[in-house]
From TrEMBL:
<dbReference type="GO" id="GO:0004930">
    <property type="term" value="F:G protein-coupled receptor activity"/>
</dbReference>
<keyword id="KW-0716">Sensory transduction</keyword>
<keyword id="KW-0919">Taste</keyword>
<protein>
    <recommendedName>
        <fullName>Taste receptor type 2 member 40</fullName>
    </recommendedName>
</protein>
<comment type="similarity">
    <text>Belongs to the G-protein coupled receptor T2R family.</text>
</comment>
<keyword id="KW-0675">Receptor</keyword>
<feature type="transmembrane region" description="Helical">
    <location>
        <begin position="80"/>
        <end position="102"/>
    </location>
</feature>
<keyword id="KW-0812">Transmembrane</keyword>
<feature type="transmembrane region" description="Helical">
    <location>
        <begin position="7"/>
        <end position="32"/>
    </location>
</feature>
<feature type="transmembrane region" description="Helical">
    <location>
        <begin position="185"/>
        <end position="207"/>
    </location>
</feature>
<dbReference type="GO" id="GO:0016020">
    <property type="term" value="C:membrane"/>
</dbReference>
<keyword id="KW-0297">G-protein coupled receptor</keyword>
<dbReference type="Pfam" id="PF05296">
    <property type="entry name" value="TAS2R"/>
</dbReference>
<keyword id="KW-0807">Transducer</keyword>
<keyword id="KW-1133">Transmembrane helix</keyword>
<feature type="transmembrane region" description="Helical">
    <location>
        <begin position="138"/>
        <end position="159"/>
    </location>
</feature>
<dbReference type="GO" id="GO:0033038">
    <property type="term" value="F:bitter taste receptor activity"/>
</dbReference>
Length: 221
């Protein structure tokens, strides 16, 4: 998760700096395609890795008497490697789709001797890219929903357990540990929500060619 987050931010800033300062570099095949494909791969793996790990900690730590939840608690250790592998494979598919879509759009709409070729490429990419925008937006939203449910269930379970400890007069150290855990989960949830909000905004404003808004979104992320 740390590696995917690190490389996602690296490719985000590379995209910004190349498009603003060295825009002619993006005209060289296949720099633009590789940049966008790699960005999409690491972005998707970052989001789904977060969702998988958040679900894992929710199932391992939270206590509910539901049969399905107990079954998941028993099986989750075996499921996690497959979930992480599935998120990597899904991210790889997204990255390949983005690369191919941009490559087709660039090949069909670009004349590399023309100075306005980058703008023409963007217009061509929009026409081909629109279904993929909906698909990636759906995947981002699904991972965000998974994080929301995991964080809410975990916070509720910890809060209920803390309430029981208060009634049973448990030691203050255990109470502090539970409060710290709840604060950590809440802060993660807030940061993830901000990240998701600006991710959707950069996705929307990239269609409108408003680079300053995209730059602001990358900075906050």
């Amino acid at each position: 998760l740390g590696c995917s987050r690190f490389w996602y931010l690296c490719f985000s800033w590379m995209d910004v700096f190349l498009s603003i300062i060295f825009s002619y570099c993006l005209l060289v095949h296949p720099i633009f395609q590789l940049l966008q494909g790699s960005y999409s791969f690491f972005n998707c793996s970052n989001l789904w890795g977060s969702a998988c790990l958040c679900s894992f900690y929710c199932i391992k730590i939270a206590n509910f008497r539901n049969r399905f939840f107990i079954y998941l608690k028993i099986k989750i250790d075996r499921m996690v490697p497959w979930l992480l592998l599935g998120s990597v494979v899904l991210s790889l598919i997204i990255g390949i789709l983005v690369y191919n879509t941009i490559d087709k759009a660039v090949g069909k709409n670009l004349n590399f001797t023309c100075r306005e070729s980058l703008q023409k490429a963007t217009i061509g990419i929009e026409e081909h890219f629109f279904p993929l925008y909906f698909f990636t937006g759906f995947l981002y939203t699904t991972s965000f929903i998974a994080v929301i449910f995991s964080a809410v269930f975990l916070l509720f379970s910890l809060w209920r357990h803390k309430h029981k400890m208060q009634t049973n007069s448990t030691s203050s150290l255990s109470m502090e540990a539970h409060i710290r855990a709840m604060k950590s989960i809440l802060s993660f949830f807030i940061m993830y929500s901000i990240n998701f909000m600006f991710l959707i905004l950069t996705l929307i404003y990239s269609l409108k060619h408003q680079n300053h808004v995209i730059f602001l979104g990358y900075t906050i992320q």
